[in-house]
Structure formats: C-alpha cells, structure tokens
Write a structure and sequence with these properties.
about 300 residues; mainly alpha; about 70% helix; disordered C terminus
Length: about 300
Amino acid sequence: MTDSTFLTSLSHVFGWTYFTCWSLSFYPQSILNFSRKSTSGTTIDFPLINSLGFFAYTISNIAFAYSPLIRAQYAVRYKGLTPTVQLNDITFAFHGLILCFVTVSQYLFPRAWGFAPSLGSRPSRFILGTFFGCVAGALIIIFRVWASPVRNDTSGAAVTEGGWVWLDAIYAVSYVKLVVTLIKYTPQVIVNYRNRSTEGWSILQILLDFGGGILSIAQQAIDSYQQGDWSGITGNPVKFALGNVSMIYDLVFIMQHYVLYRHAAGAKADGAEGDSDLDPLLREDVRGGGDEERRIQ
C-alpha cells in the first residue's frame, strides 16, 4: 500500500469515526431528559441556537459538495483546489439538524413528552439576539450578492478581486455555524457555574464531541497534506474552527463535571434546580428560582 493510499484510507476512517462520535453525541441529552422526565438543569438556549447552526451548516456543505457554480468559483479562488467537504460532513450536518429539532421539542412541548413544565424553555435574550442577528447578517450578504452583476462569474477576476459572487453568500451562511459554535455552550457553562453542578447536563455527549473534534481536525489535516496546500483548511475555516472551539468548551465541561463539581450530583441545595431554568445571562439573583418552578410544576 502506497503512502497516498494509506492516507486516503486513514482520512476515510477518521471521517466516518468522527461522524459516528459527533452523531452519537446528539442522543445522550435528549435521552437523559426523557429518562428524568424533565429538562431542569439545562436551558433551551443550546439546542435552539444549535438548530440554526446546523441548518446553516447543512446548506453550506451541500453547496460546497454539489453546486457546480460554487465549486467552480472555489477552484478559481483557491488555485484549482476543490472543497474538502465529504459525504460524512453532509450526513453529519443533516442528522445533527434533525436531532436538534427533537431536543428543542422537549423544551417547547414538554407535555407532549410527559415532562414537567420548566422555566428553561424560555430562551435568553442573548441567544435570541444572536439567532436573529445571524439570520439578518446572512440575508444581507445574500441580497448583496443577488444584486451583483458578477454573481455567477467563474472567469477569475470577479472571484479573486473582491467581486460579490455566490461563493461569498455560501461563506456567509457557513459563518452562521461558526458564530453559533463560538457561543452556543456559553449559557450552559454559566448555568453549571451558578448551580455548582452539572446535574441534568449529559457528560457523555461532551466526551463524544471531544473525540469527534480531534478526529475532524486530523481528517482535514490529512486531506490538506495530500493536496499539498493548506488551503484545504483556510478554504474551509468553519470545519476547522468547529473542532477547535468545541474542544475548548468540552474541556471546560469536563473540568466542571469531573473536578469542580464532582461531588455536587444529587446534593444540590434546596431550590437550586429551579435556578438553572432562569435566564442564565440576565439573572442577578440566582436564589429563589426553585420556589417559582415548584409552583409551575
């Protein structure tokens, strides 16, 4: 087996393994919610903004993989190279989108799942602002490209010298996923910190996410090495950033679960469960929330 064949095979193995890890990471939280008949300890912020991120990621991956126009404009901008998007990327993105919708439904329709009502079903203003800001930003770029007379150009000058082409619109959509990844875990980190506990938050999803991040970066590095040009990374910054940023957050959650709050599970103070369900970024007084949740229940 030649080195090239070995690296190609290794790339495929890493790709489908990270796909498996990341895909499986969507299940533990929804299963944990179902087994507890409650979403307490978490908020809708994470699955809600994650749904937007994976919608954008699915659209951009499909465009990079199957649109002749986008691929042609990409090749012009990046010296004849092709996007490093593979089938496992598209399958992962679409699967993640569906599972995000399932988890969001547990917060929006708790009675349909047999859950007790929870204040955590109300998204924070921070997440709502990010949600609508990302949508507005992507639409502005899309309309700007639509108005550009060179939007369908693949000759070279328009693509490489600042002309607004459809490739830029797809990048705008893909950056929505990047923005979401940068902030989506923040509310839950704060909830865990204020509750001094990770109860209700599945650590298994974090461990799977961490393993998938390592393999995702490894696959992209192999693909870029084989092409002989690191534009495979710079030309697809979202995939590269996904692995790195997610792993940083994962390490924070691992530290919270196994080090900082390892003795907190099952030993939370009275009323603490309700605290996690209040707006984690706006609340000043984190005490007393448990009484309000118990009245709702």
